[in-house]
Amino acid sequence: MILAGCSEEDKETCFKEKFMPAVEKTFPVLIRYLKESGSGFFFKNGVSWVDFFIANKVLSLNGFHPELFEKYNELKEHCDRVHSLPQLKNYLEKREKTPF
């Protein structure tokens, strides 16, 4: 994964200096919202488009940097929960996998 404005040679430095601060600021907020809802999803009423959006982003990030979710496992668990919904599970198992 190449970050905007970073060369291939500098990708690890850019990841640590630009991307990780954003992760460390944003992921705890997302986890707090998950916990506050009490539903396992981002809203008390249950699954919403926000859950689908975030689960998709987590899936992509996990493909590039799975180590991110060692510290923020709640987001990976949320992604797995969303993707195990019966309405999605069959589709996701049959669709063509996109390489990361």
UniProtKB/TrEMBL annotation:
Signal peptide (from-to): none
Domain named GST C-terminal: residues: 1-100
Key words, A-Z: Transferase
Pfam families: GST_C_3
GO molecular function, one term: glutathione transferase activity
Name the UniProt record assigns to this protein: glutathione transferase
Superkingdom classification of source: Eukaryota
GO biological processes: glutathione metabolic process
Keyword Transferase annotated: yes
Every Albumin domain range: 1-24
